[in-house]
């Protein structure tokens, strides 16, 4: 028997697919922009390729970081969609308990129940130093 009511499952599926589309559009627009944005006349084209400006390195680092973050999020969304389709959504990955529907609706990609999430965060804080 599926742990989620059909209506909740439907809402989650819709939200996840929308989030996925948004994310893909963002990623696509970022990677395609230089080529696709101004294909006709490009008066600024020569400026875009100015020789090694120190700022462009920093910018691409930030963009890379953002891209990593988005890829990770996309991965989470894919997992959540897969679980939704296979009937595994709404079950805590750590302890197997049902995840409250409210929690899922608030965060469709959530994979742990509240207790396990708190435990994980506690472990993260005590186990290692501050991240970054
Ligand atoms: Zn749990």
Explain this structure to me?
By secondary structure, the chain is mostly helical. It has one domain (1-33, 73-132): DksA, coiled-coil domain (Four Helix Bundle (Hemerythrin (Met), subunit A), Up-down Bundle), CATH 1.20.120. The protein has 5 helices and no strands. It has helices at residues 6-36, 45-48, 54-86, 101-106, 114-127. Helix 1 (6-36) runs antiparallel to helix 3 (54-86). It is flat, with a radius of gyration of 20 Å. The mean pLDDT is 82. The structure holds zinc ion (ZN). Residues 92, 94-95, 97, 112-113, 115-116 line the site of zinc ion (ZN). Zinc ion binds next to helix 5.
Topology overview:
Blueprint: H1 6-36, H2 45-48, H3 54-86, H4 101-106, H5 114-127
Bound molecules: zinc ion.
Region (Disordered): 27-56
Domain Zinc finger DksA/TraR C4-type: 89-121
Pfam families: zf-dskA_traR
């Amino acid at each position: 028997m599926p742990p989620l009511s059909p209506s909740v499952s439907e809402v989650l599926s819709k939200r996840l697919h929308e989030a996925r589309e948004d994310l893909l559009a963002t990623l696509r627009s970022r990677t395609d922009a230089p080529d696709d944005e101004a294909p006709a006349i490009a008066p600024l084209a020569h400026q875009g390729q100015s020789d090694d400006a120190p700022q462009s390195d920093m910018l691409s680092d930030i963009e890379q970081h953002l891209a990593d973050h988005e890829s990770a999020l996309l991965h989470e969304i894919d997992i959540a969609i897969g679980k939704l389709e296979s009937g595994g959504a709404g079950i805590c990955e750590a302890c197997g308990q049902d995840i409250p529907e409210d929690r899922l609706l608030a965060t469709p990609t959530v994979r742990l129940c509240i207790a396990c999430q708190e435990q994980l965060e506690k472990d993260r804080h005590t186990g290692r130093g501050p991240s970054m």
